[in-house]
Each structure stands twice: as C-alpha cells, then as structure tokens.
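Case study 2.
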Amino acid sequence: MDISRSKASNKDSRGDIRVDSSRKSLGFTPEGLTEAKPDRAEQAPGRCLNSILFIDDNPLVLETVKKLMENTAFELLTSDDPFMGLCQLSQHKPIAAFIDASLNGLSGYQFCALIKAQPTYRHILIILVLEQADKLLAARAIAAGANSVLVKPFGRNELIEASRRPGEIAA
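Prediction:
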C-alpha cells in the first residue's frame, strides 16, 4: 500500500495518521517525503526502460562500470552514496540494482534487506557486489534478500548477465 495524501484531514478522531491508497503516492527524497513523479513510461514515451542502478563508494569502480556499460541497451544510473541510491531507486525503478556489500553508512546487506522488505520494490533484481569469492558472504547476501552476487573484478558480460539472471553467483 502506498503512503498517500488525503485532501481531507489525514488524522482520525484519535489523532492517528490514516493511509489512503486512493490518492497520489509519495516518494522519498533527501528532503523527506514528496509527491512521487509519474511512472517513467508516462514521463517520456519510448524511453529505455532497461535502467540499472550501480551503487559503490569507490569512484574508480563507478567510472569502470560506466565504461563497461557504454553502447549497451541499458541506461546506467550510478551513486557513490547508499542513501542517494535509495532515492534513485525510488525515482527510476530500475530493473536491477548492483550494490557494493561494504558501503559506508548503510551496508549493501542492509540496503538489500530494506528494499526487499518493501512490496513496491521486490521485483527489482538486487545483486550484491563482493570483494572476493566467499561462500559465507554469498550466503549472507542471499539471506539479506539479494537475488544474486557478483564478485570483483568483473567484466561487461558478467555485469549484463547478472542483471538478467537472478539467483546465480557470478565470478
């Protein structure tokens, strides 16, 4: 159920806040909850709906991913901050999100659990990016709700394949 605004008072007789799913939905931004923008298909007809979000706090990794994804059918969104990544995920609703497991502030495992707990975003493939191939870390990622894991270093083909086939460990 979307949190929404009601034209009438949004509190009941006890002062509890009501949720009215028949109204406009709200989105999360750094400034707080705001009215969500229309779906991307409504914003720009014909726009590529194959967007991928990549979140890593290492600028070199982000630059490498940008180069790897040049001339592909995917629109790449990047963020070096997990909280801004949440905003991008909410706004753009990508088909897949790659999250570095060892982010500062909000780990990739926490990010994954947070997203998978929201019914609105459960359809988004979450791929946790690990520093090394480790079965224990991979199991932890899957337990947090990740669809699959990707181990650094990776190439263009592994990146694209991981975004298409959930449930596998790509090395």
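Helices lie at 40-43, 59-68, 82-92, 108-116, 135-143, 156-164.
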